[in-house]
Amino acid sequence: MSSSQPLVKQVMRVKNPDHIVEEADHGGLKRSMGLFALLMFSVGSIIGTGIFVILGEAIPKAGPAVILSFVLAAIVCAFSALSYAELAGTIPVSGSSYSYAYATLGEILAWVCGWCLMLEYGVAVSAVAVGWGQYLNEFLAAFGIAIPPEFAQPPGEGGVVNIPAVFVVVACMFLLLRGASESATMNNIMVILKLGILLFFCVVAFTAFDGGNFQPFLPLGVAGIGAAAGQVFFSYIGFDAASTAGEEAKNPKRDLPIAIIGSLIIVTIMYLLVTVAVIGANGGQPSDYEGQSGEAILATIANNVTGSTWAGTLIALGAVISIFSVVLVTMYGQTRILFAMGRDGLLPKTFTKVNPRTQTPVNNTIIVTVIISILAAFIPLGQLAEATSIGTLFAFMIVNAGVISLRRSRPNMPRSFKTPLYPITPILGVVGCLYLIASLAWITWVVFFAWLALGMLIYFTYGIKRSRLARGEADDWTPDPEPPVVS
Amino acid sequence: MKILVGVVPDASGSDAMALAGVLSRSLGGDVLIAHVYAAPSAQSGKRKVDAEWVAYLRADAEAVVADAAGAAPRYGLTQFETAVHGHKSSGVGLDELAQRIGADMIVIGSAPGASNGRFLIGSTADQLLHGSHVPVAVAPAGYRRVHPDVLGRLVVAFQDTTESHKALEWAAEHRGDRRLTALTVLLRHRVMGSNLAFDGEGLVSRQLEEDARVALGAALRALDTDADSELTIGDDASSAMGRVQWHGDELLVLASGGSVLRRVFLGDMTYKLVRATPVPAIVLPRHT
Questions:
Q1: CB count, 10 Å around CB of A230?
Q2: Does B243 lie in the same domain as B203?
Q3: Which end of chain B is less crowded, N or C, counting CB atoms within 10 A of the terminal residue's CB?
């Protein structure tokens, strides 16, 4: 009986990678994704969460130097992205950081990773839903319809409950319960729509460009760059998507790293363009953003620049459509990560109950919807974004550590991609994540540690005893020491 | 067992007769070859003209049935009865006739335009699949050329629903000494842009498979019969069905699901499977 094992051994047990491969039976996936498809997949996964909503929150933190915050966040992402690519090429299954951690670092860190992913998905989707509500408001305003602020803002920002945010979450729930599929074509359309709106915004905003807005460049000092970077990091979430498409890529060894890094470059350029346009048109000082509705900032600025509502309405419409798809995708991710943890016995079985008719996990989806709706209805966007960032940064740190751990425990395991300049890149990944975590507001830390403490409580009272590894239903696996390479 | 086969004067009529022949040899039963002609409704005016017109249609229908009867021996049908029946809609007419003669099933061919090995749901099939009182067997296009002498295997599309259990019951009752397979068809829900890709979905499929296996085991024990189980997965019904190893001597048994207001009402999955099956399928009404 594994409960008689020492505690350290219990919490550090790892899942056999072969078992993971067997678990994720995908029924003969076709290798159909070329470099372009992977690139679109990755770009589509990144753009749409943050950039539409985050600038109104981030610029007041750093001033025009928020440009450097985007670059800094992109660099931290790049290190972690390389680690993702290596793990994706080592453990031969499309996986999330949760399953990678389970195979490399042990159950407790896998649980922490999954617990952080819950924060990432759950809170990110609430934040995005809040942003969606603001853009909907902006769009409806063009037709003279205004949702009363009591029902369009959370408490503390002049409202009682954020109804549009709840609406979009519930609408996505129905799609997910039915068995929503978003095809590659739909994904491409969404990517083009999002890029199109952002480019359109840039064109409009550049007509009112004022170079003077970039002075002073660092009104809040260097610390501001880090503080804003922690927040804008939120807008890069999703860059790891391409690493999960390993089984579908035609030439994963060559294309996956190019897609991951390439999409980061494309997205960073796009974000920098938008940020420069926003600062050029609306100013770069914290005082320029006082009293503005931050979430639908792109639409607001476009309206100010053109002096009419058509440009803002167009942007708002595009944002309403594309953010909807982001909410859908993120909620989907949340339900499936809970599903994976339920399958491993770390969460109750109700999370793995599947309706045989719709072939979707119904209870799981409803629970996720209820929690996300509550967050979206009552919590302001800025706080949600920071909480998302800290959870994600923590999960990325674990992935970087996973690369180091697996290189040590299984140095000869075949790897289709190896991160360059090892061990510098994963170490820099960990350091970068730590730096961004350190720059976040103290309240975010409090929320995060409370979340982690809750997670630990649940793990030590439930998961540690109920996990499939503990019950011997899955193979506990100790990496074999490999023979030295004879060259 | 009484098998009513609805024929039309084209290749799909021959496909239907071929299937009726296979079913009668396999399950036992008498065959009635029938054609439903488009009789105007009784409310129409100008009765005299209608009477002549109806007489013409009836004569035409009898010619269709006579032709079919002439071709029937090609499909191994030597003993059968024939009938014509007038109704403004062919599907409802066939159901009416089936009830009148106490048929146990209706056999039809595909609507025109289906590629070989596929069944296209036309208006007749649509009416029958929404309102028939008895099971409806559908022959894919081209079946007349590839049909076996008798059925070798019954394949039940199985998921853990009440209707599926009824379909399994029907198949167990009619299998004779044939192989019985419970086929679980899973459709992959692909949400592009999720950074979980197929990891999450693979687990959902695995869970469904396990659930279906447990439910199937319990059902087979209750029916005191044995069956093998198979799982197929695809992005759509057609790709999932394409992965199954078909030998051409199968009959796919489908349950209807969905609305309680209808007798045979195709649930989402059943509808997809009828259109994707490369072998004949029989769709059972809810009350079977």
A1: 28
A2: yes
A3: N
Partners of residue B271 in chain A, C-beta under 8 Å: none
> Is residue A258 included in any domain, yes or no?
yes
Q: Which two tokens stand for residue B102?
A: 């106490």
Whether residue B204 and residue A329 make contact (CB cut-off 8 A), yes or no, is no
Give the end of a domain, one of B146, B180, B198: B146
Q: In this structure, are residues B137 and B107 in contact, taking their beta carbons and an 8 Å threshold? A: yes
Q: Do B160 and A186 touch (CB under 8 A)?
A: no
Which residue of B lies nearest to A114 if distances are taken between CA atoms? B196
For residue A38, CA distances in Å to A44, A84, A471 come to: 10, 15, 39
Q: CA–CA separation, A361 vs B207, rounded Å?
A: 10
From B118, B146, B174, the end of a domain falls on B146
Cβ–Cβ gap A332/B233 under 8 Å: no
Are B139 and B175 found together in one domain?
A: no
Q: Is B234 on the interface with A (CB under 8 A)?
A: yes
CATH number at residue B187: 3.40.50.620
Distance CA B12, CA A132 (A): 53
Residue A9 counted as domain residue: no
In a domain, A379, yes or no: yes
pTM assigned to the model: 0.78
B56 and B71 share a domain?
yes
Interchain pair B193, A329: CB under 8 A: yes
- Which residues are within 8 A (CB) of A345 and not within 5 positions of it... i.e. 6 or more apart? A463, A466, A467, A468, A469, A470, A471, A473
CATH number reported for the structural domain that contains residue A218 in this entry: 1.20.1740.10
* Residue B83, φ and ψ in degrees, nearest 5: -160, 155
- Return the residue of A nearest to B234 by Cα: A27
Residue A14 lies in a domain: no
For chain A, what is the domain count?
1
Non-local (6+) Cβ contacts of A74 within 8 A are A236, A264, A267, A268
Residue A192 to residue A190: CA distance in whole angstroms: 5
Residues B233 and B266 in one domain: yes
Residues of B in contact with A41 (CB under 8 A): 192-193
Task: Return the number of CB contacts < 8 Å for A and B.
Answer: 147
Q: Are residues B72 and B100 in the same domain?
A: yes
Structural domain containing residue A117: 35-472
ipTM of the shown complex:
0.74
Q: Are residues B139 and B220 in the same domain?
A: no
Beta carbons of A361 and B204 less than 8 Å apart: yes
Tell me if chain A has a CB within 8 Å of the CB of B191. yes
| CB A405 within 8 Å of CB A90 | no
Q: Do B205 and A247 touch (CB under 8 A)?
A: no
Report which residue type is found at A452.
L
Residue-number span of the structural domain to which B128 is assigned: 2-146
B199 vs A contacts (CB less than 8 Å):
24, 93-96, 99, 244, 336, 340
Within this chain, do residues B178 and B127 fall inside the same structural domain, yes or no? no
pLDDT digit string (tens) for chain A, length 487 residues: 445 678 777 887 887 666 655 554 444 556 777 888 888 888 887 886 578 777 888 888 899 999 999 999 999 888 988 888 788 777 655 556 787 788 777 899 889 988 888 877 787 788 788 888 888 888 888 888 888 877 877 777 777 888 888 999 999 898 888 876 666 677 778 888 888 989 999 999 999 899 888 888 888 888 889 888 888 887 887 777 776 666 677 877 778 778 888 888 999 999 999 999 999 998 888 888 776 655 678 888 888 888 888 888 888 888 888 888 788 878 888 888 888 889 889 999 999 998 888 888 999 999 999 998 988 888 776 666 677 778 888 888 888 998 998 888 888 877 777 888 889 999 999 999 999 888 888 888 888 889 899 999 999 999 898 888 887 766 555 544 444 444 3
Which chain A residue has its CA at the smallest distance from B159's CA? Answer: A356
DSSP assignment letter at A459: I
Does the beta carbon of B192 lie under 8 angstroms from any beta carbon of chain A? yes
- Alpha-helical (H) ranges within A417-441 are 424-439
